[in-house]
């Protein structure tokens, strides 16, 4: 009997990739509880470790040394990763509302989304950089820094906030900018100011710590302004009451923490500052389904907003989540009375603060560096296992169909168009759909179906639909109607309905953009999610594009970059950066509809879409069908970021070797260069490959790029030679 995964009985959703949640992911990677489906929603995929950020700002660490990559961590944990930002919570239906994707259903949800400086009381705060969210600070600083270093005068930098964060930022940026100015042999200096509305800096630390940090600031000529409120920031200065003004080329706000405003509309119990009130079990005091950790959690009595507590809460939260379906009560978090703070002074020195005690020196930095690197090492996927177990068999055949109640519930949420040419469809379902074809048109039909290759059913629906429509576009036809084929992972009815809702939402968004009507389809249960479409389109016989029309002198144009197969294979092995994966996803979501229209209106002689058989496989079909010879220029191929690198490392899609072997009927030994491996890479939702007369090639490329195919490139040409063969060649630059 075939083994299969446990049925989904409980949807556990983590919102945010903070310190506590990465520990939950780590422990799920080592031990996954039966029947629990884990989903992570995070806007930032490379999440920063707060302990090492000062060192990164000072220039002591590389980006990857102080950021946890959530993508391989989520994969190891068996978690679905949705890159999005939470903007609301519907407690009545149990859903997390997101900024740019459908809401996500939960049985239990945990928040670890951090905090941001309180900006509302500062007019013109958009002229400044906030220390949180960290990704925004880093992105903006990397744009601001070159302008500061290019100034032909002293740099004026102002930090608003005299807590640990503000003082560390001032000291570390002083070290960073001093090194940059010295390297550039720039004789100008900098003036850095720290402004606090309190009587002293770091008022939550001992007098000994404050004394040592004031001395460190004086050594670097960083001036501290105490008891001073900043209520306005302009383009070139910060302002306060009674005419206070400081000139500033760059401003950074590091004031006390605030919570996202949307939490006030959720109905959760919050403290006066808007943070989620929790008990000692990290559980909302008003809703037992809700947990919170890190800065977003509010305790009674209050705890300081620092990374130490978030790190300590991680194992407690993980223990609770691993037993979320059991009878054991949530684990208890017992905060320590004192925490050890290691405060960087910028120059590989640090100050240790523990209650009334304080010590400093290079050795403290070395201890801090050891602790921080040890923490980061815990979250390398090589330290994690995968012990997912199997559950009893579920029925096959028609017994595996999704129930009528689930179908009816989900389909009722989607509006269907009542067009005159749809006689029977979803609005009045029957055993089959019935349509009236347009008079004088040719019917063009295709089918495509994927097993899941991405952990987001909404994105799968969008990408699979975009892919399925491409065959219709490649023929010069307009897609009209579609039937869906869905296999849903074994789960309780509520989870089945949610998966179906997500995948159909993605599919329908794509179909509606293309003016295609979904008429019906078939659903079933299986080990993993899969989705496909059978699409019908219509074309004028005179405008039909095929693979068989290549003519001498034609130029071949490819509309999308290559590399999706290699990147998806590398991502599954945890060897691809999330930015490169996102570039591949963005490419897969680009419709070929406008590109097909450009080819059709410019009298393309032949066209196909580049998908599973790779560029050479689909081009080979064209040269055989056309009895033509083609030369392609490997140096002109558009390639997705990271794809060439991952191929050189030997990572390939499982279809790649078969594509290379099959291409032997079209090519000779002159394609042996490893840089030609991209030619065999199977593409998901790849671009169109069209042939146009040589004199009009540049005009077609310009039109394609204006229509959204920004990577459209001439990659080859039809030339005299052995029919049915492809050889390397060079296009003129």
What's this model, at a glance?
By secondary structure, this protein is α/β, with parallel strands linked by helices. 30% of the residues lie in helices and 23% in strands.
Description of the molecule:
The structure is a single chain. With 733 residues, the protein is an alpha/beta fold. The protein folds into four domains: 10-115 and 259-338 and 361-383, FAD/NAD(P)-binding domain; 125-258, FAD/NAD(P)-binding domain; 397-541, PurM-like, N-terminal domain (60s Ribosomal Protein L30, Chain: A), CATH 3.30.1330; 546-728, Phosphoribosyl-aminoimidazole Synthetase, Chain A, domain 2, CATH 3.90.650.10. The protein has 18 helices and 37 strands. The strands form eleven sheets. It has a six-stranded mixed sheet, with helices on both faces. Strands 5-2-1-9-21 form a five-stranded parallel sheet, covered by helices on one side. The radius of gyration is 30 Å and the shape is globular.
């Amino acid at each position: 009997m075939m083994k299969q995964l446990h049925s989904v009985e409980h949807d556990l959703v983590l919102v945010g990739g903070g310190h506590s949640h990465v520990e939950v992911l780590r422990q799920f990677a080592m031990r996954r509880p039966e029947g629990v489906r884990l989903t992570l929603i995070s806007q930032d995929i490379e999440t920063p470790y707060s302990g090492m950020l000062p060192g990164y700002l000072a220039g002591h660490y590389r980006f990857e040394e102080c950021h946890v990559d959530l993508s391989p961590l989520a994969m190891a944990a068996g978690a679905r990763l949705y890159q999005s930002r939470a903007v609301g919570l519907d407690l009545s239906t149990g859903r997390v509302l997101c900024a740019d994707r459908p809401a996500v259903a939960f049985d239990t949800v945990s928040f670890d989304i951090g905090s941001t400086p309180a900006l509302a009381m500062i007019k013109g705060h958009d002229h400044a950089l906030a220390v949180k969210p960290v990704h925004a600070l880093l992105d903006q600083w990397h744009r601001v820094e070159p302008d500061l270093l290019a100034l032909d005068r002293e740099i004026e930098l102002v930090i608003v906030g005299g807590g640990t964060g503000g003082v560390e930022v001032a000291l570390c940026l002083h070290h960073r900018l001093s090194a940059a100015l010295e390297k550039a042999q720039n004789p100008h200096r900098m003036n850095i100011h720290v402004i606090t509305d309190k009587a002293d800096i770091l008022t939550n630390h001992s007098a000994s710590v404050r004394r040592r940090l004031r001395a460190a600031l004086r050594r670097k000529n960083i001036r501290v302004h105490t008891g001073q409120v900043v209520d306005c920031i302009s383009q070139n200065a910060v302002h306060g009451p009674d005419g206070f003004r400081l000139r500033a080329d760059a401003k950074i706000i590091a004031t006390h923490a605030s919570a996202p405003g949307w939490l006030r509309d959720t109905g959760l119990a919050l403290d006066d500052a808007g943070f989620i009130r929790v008990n000692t079990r990290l559980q909302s005091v008003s809703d037992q389904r809700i947990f919170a950790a890190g800065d977003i959690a509010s305790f009674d009595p209050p705890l300081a907003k620092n990374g130490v507590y978030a790190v300590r809460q991680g194992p407690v939260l993980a223990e609770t989540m691993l037993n979320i379906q059991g009878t054991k009560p949530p684990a208890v978090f017992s905060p320590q009375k004192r925490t050890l703070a290691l405060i960087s002074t910028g120059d590989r020195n640090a100050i240790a603060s523990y209650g009334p005690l304080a010590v400093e020196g290079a050795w403290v930095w070395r201890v801090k560096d050891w602790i921080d690197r040890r923490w980061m090492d815990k979250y390398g996927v090589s330290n994690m296992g995968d012990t997912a177990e199997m559950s009893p068999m579920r029925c096959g055949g028609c017994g595996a169909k999704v129930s009528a109640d689930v179908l009816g519930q989900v389909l009722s949420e989607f509006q269907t168009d009542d067009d005159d040419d749809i006689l029977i469809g979803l609005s009045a379902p029957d055993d089959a759909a019935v349509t009236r074809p347009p008079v004088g048109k040719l019917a063009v039909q295709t089918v495509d179906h994927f097993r899941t290759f991405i952990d987001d059913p909404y994105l799968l629906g969008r990408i699979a639909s975009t892919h399925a429509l491409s065959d219709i576009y490649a023929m010069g036809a307009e897609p009209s109607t579609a039937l869906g084929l869905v296999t849903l992972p074994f789960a309780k009815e509520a989870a089945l309905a949610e998966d179906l809702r997500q995948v159909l939402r993605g599919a329908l968004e794509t179909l509606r953009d293309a003016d295609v009507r979904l008429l019906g389809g078939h659903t079933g249960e299986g080990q993993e999610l899969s989705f496909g479409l059978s699409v019908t389109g219509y074309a004028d016989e005179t405008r039909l594009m095929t693979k068989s029309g290549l003519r001498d002198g034609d130029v071949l144009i490819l509309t999308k970059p290559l590399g999706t197969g290699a990147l998806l294979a590398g991502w599954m092995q945890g060897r691809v950066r999330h930015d490169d994966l996102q570039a591949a996803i963005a490419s897969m979501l680009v419709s070929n509809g406008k590109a097909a229209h450009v080819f059709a209106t410019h009298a393309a002689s032949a066209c196909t879409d580049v998908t599973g058989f790779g560029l050479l496989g689909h081009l080979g079909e064209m040269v055989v069908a056309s009895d033509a010879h083609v030369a392609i220029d490997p140096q002109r191929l558009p390639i997705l970021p990271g794809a060439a690198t991952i191929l050189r490392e030997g990572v390939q899609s499982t279809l790649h070797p078969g594509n290379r072997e099959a291409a032997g009927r079209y090519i000779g030994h002159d394609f042996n260069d490893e840089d030609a491996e991209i030619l065999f890479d199977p593409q998901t939702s790849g671009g169109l490959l069209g042939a146009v007369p040589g004199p009009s090639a540049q005009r077609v490329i310009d039109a394609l790029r204006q229509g959204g195919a920004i990577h459209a490139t001439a990659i080859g040409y039809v030339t005299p030679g052995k029919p049915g063969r492809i050889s390397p060649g060079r296009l003129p630059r």
